[in-house]
Each structure stands twice: as structure tokens, then as C-alpha cells.
Amino acid sequence: MTKKLLALLLALFMLAALLTGCGSSAASASSASAESTAASASAVTTAGYDDLDPVELIGADSTSKGAAGQIFGELVASKVDEITGGKLTIDYHPNGDLGGDADLLRQMQSGDIDLVVCQTAPIVSFVPEMAMFDLPMVFAKYSGDTIDAVLNDADSDVRAALSEAYDAAGYHYLGVLQNATYRLTTANVELNTLADFKGLQIRTMENSNHMAFWSAIGAEPTPLAWADLYFALQTGTVDAEENAADTIVGASFQDVQSVLACTNHILYANQISINKETYESLDPAYQAALDQAVSEAIAEMRAQLSDIDETNKQVLADAGMTIITYEDSFFDEILALDEVKALYEDIDAQINGLGTILQDALAAS
After folding, report:
1. Per-domain residue ranges for the chain?
2. Which residues, in sequence order, are CB contacts of 183 under 8 Å at separation 6+?
3. Helix H segments across the chain?
4. In the list 6, 49, 151, 249, which could disulfide-bond 312, CB 3.0-4.6 Å?
5. What CATH code is assigned to 51-179+269-307?
6. Architecture in CATH for domain 184-267+309-364
């Protein structure tokens, strides 16, 4: 009996040890499996770029220091780097480091640089359809959300038309940053009524539609290089200029101008585009990363644009500038001018009816 009892106890002890060992093995296996799953998840996150060669793009703008265009371009560059873990990067040159807008756009077209952020007016010479932004006050009654959907949503007829137009010019359309803020007028005379614009010598960009608008309301537009503008305002060579509030502050025009008139004639928008061949040469994963970076940057920046606009208007007011705002009747008076109506028709004809498509899309959104 004693031997049998000892044998039974020994058997029970060995069985318990076996079960404990199996439990330990199962736990180890479970832990290993979890670690493997986590590693796989990490691999999935970076797998789209790990096997790709690093690519560096050259990007640029010619905005004033600290303007929304510069912030936008640098934010896109930062996001591309973050999304791809540094595999796709943008060597970004702001504030005219590589030239003015026309120079940058020519360099992008020829492939000497890859990506450009600029306002909409300069690109009209390269992508005529961008003249839709030259329709005076066409965006004035719409919210930033509505305008964004028309310009940036993938299923937008306007975006599709712009993408096709950019392709024809050798560019690839990436998107437009805006939030229903506008170009304003600075001057050394008060511009309270439409009659006050008669004979006003105002500096404009080299854009025939902008010049035609100012002529239509009685002003005398003068195209002038950006680098020469401060001195021209200081010496009275020209009486006025038009830009967004942050650009005005960045250029310190409050030192040589006394009035800020909120004419809201042109949407303050920055387009971003890339050389078409460069974009098409990128691996699809890099294309997706760039598209994502632009989309995220637009979403983040839009929330800041209104604050940037109001903050810079306050800076100008604090510097002693008189701020003039207008009732809707002022804009209605301008839009009712025969010369302005004729300009609308002319611009729409220039861009094969895209102006009408834009107005219809805005109204339907």
C-alpha cells in the first residue's frame, strides 16, 4: 500500500508539473503572438515607404515673410516629411529666395524646381483658366466651407476643370488654400465711395483682368515689380496698392500708407502645384503622401486664416491706419456697372465658360 501510494503521489506531481509547463508555454506563445502582431502593424505603417528610394523635391514661394503662403508651403513640407518618415522631403525656399512668382512658375514648368505656392493672379499667364479668380467679388457672399468644396473636393466640376487645365500647362493641381478672406486696398486718400476711386493710381500685379477691373471703376492701374513697390508708395509714384492684410503687414506698408479699404474685390487664395512630370514620376505611395499633406495643411491653415486676417487688420489699425468697410450696397453698385458686367463676360469667354460653371457651383453648394 505504501509503494502504491507513493507511486500515485509521484504521478500526480508529474502531471501538475506538466500542466504548469504547458500553461507557461501557452502564455509565452500568446505573448510572442502579440509582439508579432504589433511588429506587423508597425511594418504595415511604414511598408509603403521602406522599400522606396528617398526623394527630395524643391519647393518655393515669393510671399512676404510670415505670410500665409509661406506658412502653408512650409507646413506641407513638414507634413510630407512626417508622413513618409523622411523618405520624401521638400527643400523649401520661401520669400522670393528663388525668384518672383513668374520666375518660379517658369522654373516649375521647365522642371528646374518642383513645387510652387503662390496667389492665383500670377498663374493666369500660365494657366488661363485661373482667370476665374479674377471675376471681381465673385466669392464675396459665400462661406469658406462652400468655396473650399468647390475648389478642392474630388468630385467638384470646378476642380476637375482646373486639374485638366494645369495638366495642359505642364503642372499638376494640388489644391487651393482660402477661407473667405480677401485682397484689400491701401492708399493715402480716403476711399469712402465709388467716386473716390476715380483717378487713383494703384499698383497691381501684371494681370490684365485686375487692371481692367480697376479701370472699370475709374482708377488708374499701374503694374509694378513687388521689389519696387515700397519706395513707389513712399515717394508718391503710386497712390495705392492692393493685397491681403498679412502681406501688407509683412511689407510694412502701414509705414507709407494711411488708409486700409476693405474692398474685398479678389479672394485671398494660395494655390499649390507641382511639375506634372515630377508628380507622375513619383511612386504612387509618394503621390498619396503629398496629396495627404496638402489636404491636411489646407484643413489646418483654413482654421487660422480668419485669425490671421483679423490680427493683421488690427496691427494696421494700431499703426494708425484708418479702416474703411463697406455695406453690401457698395459692392452691388460696382457689380451693376456696365464695365464690370462686360468684364465678367470677357473673363468667362477667356476661360471657355468656366466662370459660369464656377458661379453655378457656388450657388448650388
Report:
1. 51-179+269-307, 184-267+309-364
2. 242, 243, 244, 263, 264, 265, 266, 267, 268
3. 2-50, 68-83, 101-110, 120-123, 144-152, 157-168, 208-216, 226-235, 245-250, 276-281, 284-318, 328-335, 338-350, 354-364
4. 249
5. 3.40.190.170
6. 3-Layer(aba) Sandwich (3.40)
> What tens digit of pLDDT does each residue of 143-185 get?
999 999 999 999 999 999 999 999 999 999 999 999 999 999 9
pTM for this prediction: 0.76
Contacts of 85 by beta carbon, 8 Å cutoff, 6+ apart: 46, 49
Strands 201-204 and 240-243, by their bridges, are: parallel
Interval 253-284: pLDDT, tens: 999 999 999 999 999 999 999 999 999 999 99
Q: What cell numbers appear for 163 in the block?
A: 486639374
Judge whether 135 and 112 are in contact, CB under 8 Å: no
- Report the candidate in 213, 260, 256 with the shortest Cα–Cα distance to residue 232: 256
